[in-house]
From TrEMBL:
<keyword id="KW-0963">Cytoplasm</keyword>
<feature type="domain" description="Glycosyl hydrolase family 32 C-terminal">
    <location>
        <begin position="339"/>
        <end position="470"/>
    </location>
</feature>
<dbReference type="Pfam" id="PF00251">
    <property type="entry name" value="Glyco_hydro_32N"/>
</dbReference>
<dbReference type="InterPro" id="IPR018053">
    <property type="entry name" value="Glyco_hydro_32_AS"/>
</dbReference>
<keyword id="KW-0119">Carbohydrate metabolism</keyword>
<protein>
    <recommendedName>
        <fullName>Sucrose-6-phosphate hydrolase</fullName>
        <ecNumber>3.2.1.26</ecNumber>
    </recommendedName>
</protein>
<keyword id="KW-0326">Glycosidase</keyword>
<dbReference type="InterPro" id="IPR001362">
    <property type="entry name" value="Glyco_hydro_32"/>
</dbReference>
<dbReference type="InterPro" id="IPR013189">
    <property type="entry name" value="Glyco_hydro_32_C"/>
</dbReference>
<dbReference type="InterPro" id="IPR023296">
    <property type="entry name" value="Glyco_hydro_beta-prop_sf"/>
</dbReference>
<dbReference type="InterPro" id="IPR013148">
    <property type="entry name" value="Glyco_hydro_32_N"/>
</dbReference>
<dbReference type="InterPro" id="IPR006232">
    <property type="entry name" value="Suc6P_hydrolase"/>
</dbReference>
<dbReference type="InterPro" id="IPR051214">
    <property type="entry name" value="GH32_Enzymes"/>
</dbReference>
<comment type="function">
    <text>Enables the bacterium to metabolize sucrose as a sole carbon source.</text>
</comment>
<comment type="similarity">
    <text>Belongs to the glycosyl hydrolase 32 family.</text>
</comment>
<dbReference type="GO" id="GO:0004564">
    <property type="term" value="F:beta-fructofuranosidase activity"/>
</dbReference>
<keyword id="KW-0378">Hydrolase</keyword>
Length: 481
């Protein structure tokens, strides 16, 4: 189908589903979602000529994966978003099965996209083309076709180019699999963006002290933060180990030092970015204020995906709120961008309560679209549990130094949990939207992200302490974006 017909077909799908979607109480209020169909990875994040651009993997036709478009939102302030015409539509031979993930840069005043053209032959065979598209207004894109070709060191699991400039040279990292079926990151350089030179493998599943970190690394991102070079990757095929790597696929980072222009990248351990259930394929960009901002897909391709209750309303998945990344030692800290404070409806409501071996609940405290800041003082308790909207349970076990998030499984309502080690609980900063939660612990040193589907009217918040605590709670209702 040609571009115009494909676009018409997508618009019709959006139109036909509008009413159905408007009736959905789980439609989010301050997160980016697809107008209909399925959304996955954030793509092409950029602050271009004063406007923030967020593109995303989009299947307009089904709430399932398929031949992806690049949907497009713009904003002046990271809060109010405007839906734009899809930037990429998969109508050319080299992308017939999807304009897969990629990135954006500004070059000679133009907004340039790099993405993967995906061509499938049956279930297992595929071709991959790293393509370029250019725009002078940031809204309409002209495709330039494939520019970066698959070197013979990799299988055709080779995708998601992330391009950046360092010391006047363009570089690209591409998510890849080597011929031994190990996940790696391939590194390229270019002086003109059209011809790319393969430098080699920057990092990989069994390199640099790693024993085995999966069979494929998707969505790499590589950037300088302070004096360090940070590599984000989303590895597939990592085995669960204790509380680690519990999701089907992971997203995490390495901190290291890159000898610019070479494959020499000495890095430390792989650390998961998010400890919750729904977080994958994050991407970052630097804005004009010099902040490194990350947005992730608040979802994941797993067995549960098909059981999300929004599917019957014709849509599925969303993006996370924008989070600023800050380096503290060898750890990445995530902070909700300060702009989000504009969402607050009124002065916060404050509660301050001392509890000892007791349970206390507030019928309306949690809210449905809200922000909660909870400070814990004089915490001496075997466990402290917070129940949110009768659906989420956050538990801190002080003896075991363990923080746990529980929710009800989409498939059958059974309780499932994710945990992380936490030596001390000082503060929780919680963003609640109609069907999502993002929990920033102790200033963002650990983060839990999850979708959940509670009774839309339930706003209860309850605390149960085995021991004692002095709680300072501040709550704001938030407006829709
Ligand atoms: C990650 C991913 C990418 C790919 C895209 C396709 O979720 O699998 O590797 O480009 O999704 O939608």
């Amino acid at each position: 189908m040609n571009q115009v017909d494909l676009l018409q077909k997508a618009y019709k799908k959006v139109e036909d589903n509008k009413e159905n979607i408007q009736l959905d109480p789980y439609r989010l209020h301050f997160h980016l979602m697809p107008p209909t169909g399925l959304l996955n990875d954030p793509n092409g994040l950029i602050h271009y000529k004063g406007t923030y651009h967020v593109f995303y993997q989009w299947n307009p036709f089904q709430t399932a994966h398929g031949s992806k478009f690049w949907g497009h939102y713009t904003s002046r302030d990271l809060i109010h978003w405007q839906e734009q015409q899809p930037a990429l539509v998969p109508n050319e031979w080299y992308e017939k099965d999807g304009c897969y993930s990629g990135s954006a840069i500004e070059a000679n005043g133009e907004l340039v996209l790099f993405y993967t053209g995906n061509v499938k032959h049956g279930e297992d065979k595929r071709e991959t083309y790293q393509c370029m598209a250019v725009s002078s207004d940031g809204l309409k894109f002209e495709k330039k076709g494939p520019v970066l070709f698959l070197p013979e060191e990799y299988t055709s699991h080779f995708r998601d180019p992330k391009v950046w400039k360092r010391e006047d040279v363009w570089y690209a990292v591409v998510g890849a699999q080597n011929l031994n079926k190990e996940g790696v990151v391939a590194l390229f350089s270019s002086t003109n963006l059209k011809e790319w030179n393969h430098i080699g493998i920057l990092a990989g599943s069994k390199l640099n002290g790693l024993t085995d970190l999966g069979y494929m690394w998707e969505c790499p991102d590589f950037f300088k933060l302070g004096e360090k070079d940070v590599l984000l990757v989303s590895p597939q095929g990592v085995e669960a180990k204790g509380h680690l790597y519990q999701n089907e696929f992971q997203s995490g980072y390495f901190i290291g030092k890159w000898k610019v222009g070479t494959t020499e990248y000495l890095h430390g351990e792989f650390t998961e970015l998010d400890r919750g259930f729904d977080f994958y394929a994050p991407q970052t960009f630097e804005d004009e204020r010099g902040r490194r901002i990350m947005i992730g897909w608040m979802g994941i391709t797993d067995e549960q995906e098909v059981y999300q209750p929004t599917i019957e309303k014709g849509w599925v998945h969303a993006l996370t709120i924008p989070r600023e990344l800050v380096l503290e030692g060898e750890k990445l800290i995530q902070k909700p961008v300060t702009e989000l404070k504009q969402l607050r409806q009124e002065d916060g409501i404050k509660y301050n309560v001392k509890l000892e071996n007791e349970e206390k609940s507030w019928e309306k405290l949690a809210g449905v679209v809200s922000e909660l800041k909870i400070r814990f003082e004089h915490l001496e308790a075997e466990t402290i549990e917070l129940n949110i909207r009768s659906h989420l349970k956050l538990t801190y076990n002080q003896d075991q130094n363990l923080f746990t998030l529980q929710r009800k499984r989409f498939k059958d309502g059974k309780v499932e949990s994710r945990s992380c080690e936490l030596p001390k609980l000082e503060e929780l900063y919680i963003y609640l939207d109609t069907s999502s939660v993002e929990i920033f612990i102790n200033g963002g040193s650990e983060v839990f992200t999850a979708r959940f589907f509670a009774d839309p009217k339930d706003e209860e918040f309850a605390v149960n302490v085995k021991g004692q605590v002095h709680l300072f709670i501040e709550k704001w209702n938030l407006v829709s974006r």
